[in-house]
Every structure is written in structure tokens, then in C-alpha cells.
């Protein structure tokens, strides 16, 4: 069995996502959400259509209303999301939230939450980082035991979809000190609970993120996701999943920015000839094409390793995120440069790709973070 | 599925019983591989045995048809054989331009007569081949070649000069691009011909490289008689086959960057040399450089795998060979530079047994040629820009 090709089902999913997103969630939609300063930052009609398409249940088993198509399948949608810069809660809810509860939820939590996620009725957000650069083991947010439950105090930043989420999945310290990996617990917190303050932060990509402040927030024991004090391995697993899917979205961004740029090279004339006839630009384009081919391979390998539960899934997730970040950065930089002056204008779409790439690169660790992690996982 | 399981079990048992212990050690220098041919002296009895045993089963060319001496294995079986060989770190029994290059071309384009004449000796490692492509005036512009073959009825008379002929002085036969028609567009007047290197008028002279070794020669062709039945494919249609062969060559050269079976990886060597500090390489700049290379090398390896998987399932872009050649050779050059930095002044010693007679700096210098031979990196980028991206 060939490992690094899509099967028929996955190819169909890719094709249908391509047509669907191009029509229902094109770049013009992101512009409209931005220009109208839309309160939610996504279109409810699009979200309902995504639910109808089954996108929200791709990672969930059938018993909870999903289809169980898996990560490779979901990654195909993510890639098309990247190409169209489609804004929706899909990543925060249907990738992160769905995976978190499916992986670690108890029977009660699964019964309560997963069908509502599949139905698009419940939105989630993962609140991990406390520092501006991704440091998942730096957890100062405290969860103190009180009676049968916990009381939370602390602050999380860069919480994607934080201001629209119904439930927050929060990493908090139940033992040990700030940078220890032991003593971290994941807790499910209602966004409207007393003491939760959520501030939407408008980011460079006009997409949703928030600062979440927790002051004396009470939760009961049923809020614990997974094991008390031993939440870090689960968090790492969730971040691997997140990073593989972010890499898929970055791949879509890199490809779209690249293809638009090559098209421009075939249209723009200077000195009486098409600028695509200049070798100085041809070689840069050809190099970038080669790099994108590498990203296709690492993204597929990482997603497929997650589906198969391979031992090297963590390493491949870091490889995919690192390489996709590096190449998306190159692709979007080259895109602006090769478009020349018009690439600097807000009116032209190419600038939206560079603005979307950077937040995705930073989210859950950039090239440096993952190159370092890859080396550590490789024994050096 | 169970047939393949059986095949794996049998293959494993056969390899265990038949691959000599000394053939399960890494190939560390240019002297280690077995190239075969009339002039070959086996480096050891094990080397001879290993070649004979593998050749007898046709496993030197496992996926070639059985009727010409090949192994007749399916793609899946070939993959299993390679995996099982890698598992015990078995060396390839034979390094051969016959198997890598001209053999596949003869099987694809050659007459029945040529297949019967040339394929079996290639499989058995009895005839060693060299490639007559480049000329002093035709490097990157290969189609501009001038070696002239004049039609004499039943044969050609060939005159000209070839350069960068790998191991021409050790080879028994040459596959050679010649101009059979000077009056048409340059790509349309080229033929691919085969001749014995002992034919009168063929002489060679080794070229010494910056690495100190002489893997390449100049080859002089003075009134060399070539029989017409030794043309592969149609007369004047050789450029198509030449491009097909270049694809093979590019894939082969593109693979040079990979760590050989049994050889320590770059990062393992770095751990040995620099040591770890809290689980991290003690030199932080070196660690970052190596990690960068490692990510690219792993991504490249997965890409080579994906290209094969896509070809098997009938998808894929084609033309991937230009990318693999470009990226693979650039990766290998980076790896050699990192090894030089890692070993510091030890990497600069040119002579002396303790330094394996300068194997490291010689390898490093040799790698500079990887992005020149078989079409330079710049030519590969041109190919990608033109054929894949449609930039004119």
C-alpha cells in the first residue's frame, strides 16, 4: 500500500472542499468580515453549510455524529481553507476541540459535547500560551483545589476563536512550578462562567484571537479533561494534531500565493517582454516550486502518521510545521516582491496571504521552535 | 497479501544464508563497491560470491524480465527485497551504469537482438558500461554535440571527442550520443549507439579532479566503426532516449545525499564529536545548522518516497526528476560542508592512514561536482521553470 498518496475518499473530500470553499468562503468574504468589523469574525451561514457538508465531524467517530474520515481527510479541507483564506471556527472547534474531547474525554464529556460539536452548536477554544512566543510548558495559571473542584486564576493569550467559544480548554497548574511539565491539568471552562473575561484581539490577518483572563473561576471535578497533574502529554498530542493541520493550511497558502505569482509573471510586461522570461525570476520560482513539493510530502506524512498512530508522529508534526512555516514565509515574501508595487496595495489580494501566513506560523510554535523540537526528539 | 508475506520470509531466509558477513558493512570509500566487467579484480572472495549468488537469481536487476536474466519481480516484491537487504545492511552486489542507465533504455527502446545481446551480461556484471554524452563544446548545451557518425551503409564511422566519461578507462562498452544528421534542428539529428571500447580508434585519458581521484576520462574516437544494429531505437531519434537516460541519471545523482545503510547520520556523528549538554548538542550554532539540514533531508526523503508512490498509483507531476536532482545534490553539498565544519582540522588532512587518506576532504570536493554533472542545478531550475511552470 502506497502511503504518501490520497485514497479515493480523501481525494473526493479534497475536490468537494475545493469547490465548496471557492464558492462559499472566498477571499472577498474575509474582506467583508474585516471591513464591516464583524462581531463574530465569521459567517454563520458558512458555518451552517460546513456542518451540512460534514466538515465538523471528520475527526469524530460515527457514534457521536461524525464520519471518522481522519486527519488526512481533514487536512485536505485545511489546505483549501488556506488557499481561500476562509474564516471559520473549523480549526479551533472541529480539529482542536473535537480531538481534545475525543482523545481524553470521559464518557459523560463525550456524550455531552461531541454531538454538539459535530452539529456545529458548540464552539471551543484551546487556551495554552501565556507568553508571546509559544511555550506550552510555561504555565503560571493556577487551578487550586477547592472542595471537589478547582478555582482558576491566570491569563492566556493568543487564544484562537477565544471570543466566540462556548467552552475553553485551559491548561492550568495543579502542582509544581511554572516551567515544569508535571503538574499541568487541562480543564474545560464555560466561557460565560463568573470570573472569565475575554478580550478579542484584532490580529494582522483580521482573524479571531483573544486574551483570556481568569479570576477566581470555579469549576467542578467534572471539568477535568484527562488526568489531574498529568495533562502535558495530552497537550503535546493535541499540539501535534494542531500543528499538522496548521501545516496543511500553510501549504494551501503557499501554493495559492505561488500560483498567483507565477500567473502574474505570465501577464506582466516590462521592457517589452513578459517578466516571466527573466531567468532571475525563473530560478527563484523554480526553487520555490521545489520547496513546496517538499512541504506537500511532509504534511501528508504527518497527517498520515496521526491517523496510523505511528511512533514518529510527534517528530513528523514538528517537521511539517517547521517546513510549512519556512516555505510559506518564503512563498508569501516572494509573492509580494514579484508582484512589485501592486503587491503592496490593500486592494490586491496577495498581501492577505502574507498577513495570514505569519499568525499561522507563530501559532503553536514557529520554524525555530519546531526545528529545536525536532532535534531534541532526534536525540540531539 | 499472504503471497508477499511468504516472499518476504523466503527472501529474508535466503539473504541470511547467502549474504557474506563482510558484505553487510557500510560502503565507506570509492574502493568498496563492486563494479564488475572484464577488467574487474574482486576485492575479496566474499565480493565475488555475493555478486554471483545475487546475479544467479537475477536480483542484481530484480525487476527486469526473467527472459533476459533479470529477477522478474513485481514492484512490491522488489520493494520487499530492498527492505530486506537494508534490514541486514547488505551492500548492493553490483554498481553498474548498465543496470542504472543503459539497461532500462535498451529494454524500453532497443531491438530484440540488442536485448538478447546486452541485457544478460549486464545482469551478471560481466560487462561494464560507460556513458559518452558530454563533449568539450557541449556541456549544459548537450544537444549541441558534434561527434559525427557518417553512414557507410551497414555501419557508421564515428569521429569526435567525449569528455566526463565516467570510468571510461575501466569500461568494456560505451553508450554514446553521436550526430547522424547535421542538417536538421540539433535535437533531431542525434542517435544513441553502442560499441566495444576495444574497437580500433577508441582511446581514453583519465582527468584528475580537485579531489585527487580520476573517475572521469576524455575519450577520443578516431574512425571508429559502429555496426548499424547497435543503434538503440531509431536513427536520428536518440535525443528522446538521451533525455530518458538523463532522467535516470538525475534520480541517481539526486540520491547521493542520502545516508548509506549502516553509515552514521550527520547528527549521530555530531553527537560523537561534540557531545551532549542537557540532551542537546554542545555547540548551539552547529546544532541549529544540523537541525536545518536534517529537516530538509527528511523532507526530501519523504518527497522521493511520495514521487514513487504517486508514480505507482498513476498520479504525480512527472518531471519530478529535475527537482529531485536539484534538491538532492544541493543537500549533499550542504551535508559535506557541515561534515567539514564538524571535524574541524581533522577534515583537512589529505594523506595518512589515520585519516583514511583524506577521505573526508576528497568526498567534500567530489560533492561539488554533483550539482554540475548530469545537468547543472541551473539547468534543472530552467527545466522546472520551462516544463512545469510554463515560464518562457
Helix content of chain A: 40-55%
Report the biggest beta sheet of chain A as strand number plus sense, adding barrel if it closes.
4 strands, mixed
| Count of all domains of chain B | 3
CATH architecture of the largest domain in chain A: Up-down Bundle
How much beta of chain A, percentage-wise? 15-25%
Average residue pLDDT of chain A: 97
Radius of gyration of chain B: 22 Å
Assembly status: heterodimer
Number of domains of chain A: 3
Structural class of the secondary structure composition of chain B? Answer: alpha+beta
CATH topology of the largest domain in chain A: Butyryl-CoA Dehydrogenase, subunit A, domain 3
The chain-level structural class of chain A is alpha+beta
Full CATH superfamily name of the largest domain in chain B: Butyryl-CoA Dehydrogenase, subunit A, domain 3
| CATH C-level of the largest domain in chain B | Mainly Alpha
Helix and strand sequence of chain A: HHHHHHEEEEEEEEHEEHHHH
Overall morphology of chain A: globular
Offer a few descriptive terms.
heterodimer, A: 380 residues, alpha+beta, Butyryl-Coa Dehydrogenase, subunit A, domain 1, Butyryl-CoA Dehydrogenase, subunit A, domain 2, Butyryl-CoA Dehydrogenase, subunit A, domain 3, 3 domains, four-stranded mixed β-sheet, four-stranded antiparallel β-sheet, 11 helices, B: 392 residues
